[in-house]
Amino acid sequence: MNITDVRIRKLTDVGKMKAIVSVTFDDAIVIHDIKIIQGNDSLFIAMPSRRLPNGEFRDVAHPINAEARAEIERIVFEKYKELENEEGQEVAEEE
Q: Are 36 and 19 in contact (CB under 8 A)?
C-alpha cells in the first residue's frame, strides 16, 4: 500500500498535541484522527483510538508491523515539517 495523500490540521493551542492528520492509502482508504504529539524528547504519532468502558484506550486502526509504522511516521513528519516551514516563511514575509 502506498500513501497517496496526507492532510494536516495544525492546532493553535499551546499544548502537547500539535496536529491532527488524515492519511490516504492508494486513493482508496483513509485513516482520520492520527495525532502528532510532542513527547519529552521528540514528536510521535498516536493512532486513532476509542475509550473502553474500563477507561483504557484501544487503537481503532494501526499499522501491524514496525516497517509500516515507520513509513507512516516518516511521511507524516515530513509533511508536518513542510507545513511548519511554510508558516515560518509567511511570518517572515509579513514582518
A: yes
For residue 49, give the nearest of 30, 62, 65 by alpha carbon.
62
* Neighbouring-strand partners of residue 44: 37
For the question of whether the overall pTM of this predicted structure is more than 0.85, the answer is: no
DSSP category for residue 75: H
Alpha helix (H) residue ranges in 12-65:
none
Give the Cβ contact number of residue 31 at 10 Å: 17
Q: Find where cell 497517496 sits.
A: 4
pLDDT tens across 7-34, in order? Answer: 999 887 778 999 999 999 999 999 999 9
User: Which residues, listed in sequence order, are joined to residue 36 by a DSSP beta bridge?
Assistant: 19, 45
